[in-house]
Design goal:
single chain, 207 residues, mainly alpha, Tetracycline Repressor, domain 2, elongated
Length: 207
């Protein structure tokens, strides 16, 4: 059974009582609105209204909508990275196919458990938009390291560029899951995971 990895968005900056509850509502409402409307079609007034708080309360927590958006992206990426690392660690002594499946499942589980937050993190063109800062991204370092070790051990095509392969797979996987979350007639979770397994460079590029 997949681990329950639904995240509590409000835990990124712990606070108690009514202030903590207001912040949690702002983050939850912001995630839903950014996911459904896009960053450009949401403002601080609509987020505050959807959260049941005043605009002044919004500004007591966040400088503007971009600050709220950055916190959502940072929290989402951090949680997903932790889930992937834990899945990889738990499967490190299993056969390669099971190691790949564990990390693919962790990615799919995160998207399925947190659809609005997932869309905020990975929707093209939103991360960092209007904030004057570059968009954040999911680190490929762990996958690159694993692919490098497999290539050096002679298990992968020696011409494989592990940095390009890791980035290509993560980019494709993240966008495929954006489509999968809402697409009519999308494949089942099991079929999706099986397809992603086959496309993973650790298996697709074996010698």
């Amino acid at each position: 059974m997949a681990e329950d990895n639904t995240i509590q968005i409000s835990k990124s900056k712990p606070a108690g009582g009514r202030r903590g509850a207001a912040r949690a509502r702002l983050l939850a409402a912001g995630a839903e609105m950014f996911a459904n409307r896009g960053l450009g079609n949401v403002n601080t007034n609509t987020i505050a209204r959807a959260s049941g708080v005043g605009v002044g309360t919004f500004y007591s927590h966040f400088e503007d909508k971009f600050a709220l958006h950055r916190e959502l992206v940072t929290t989402g990426l951090s949680t997903l990275q932790e889930n992937l690392a834990r899945a990889s660690q738990n499967a490190k002594d299993r056969p390669l196919e099971e190691q790949v499946r564990a990390t693919v499942e962790a990615f799919v589980d995160f998207a399925e458990a947190n659809p609005a937050l997932y869309k905020v993190v990975f929707a093209a063109g939103d991360a960092g938009a209007g904030s004057g800062r570059p968009a954040l991204g999911l680190s490929t370092r762990a996958m690159e390291s694993r692919l490098h070790a497999l290539r050096e051990a002679g298990h992968l095509d020696p011409g494989l560029d592990v940095s390009a392969a890791a980035r290509f797979f993560y980019a494709g996987q993240s966008q495929l899951l954006l489509w999968w979350l809402d697409a009519p007639g999308a494949p089942s979770r099991e079929d999706l995971i099986a397809t992603l397994e086959r496309l993973h460079p650790a298996l697709a590029c074996r010698r």
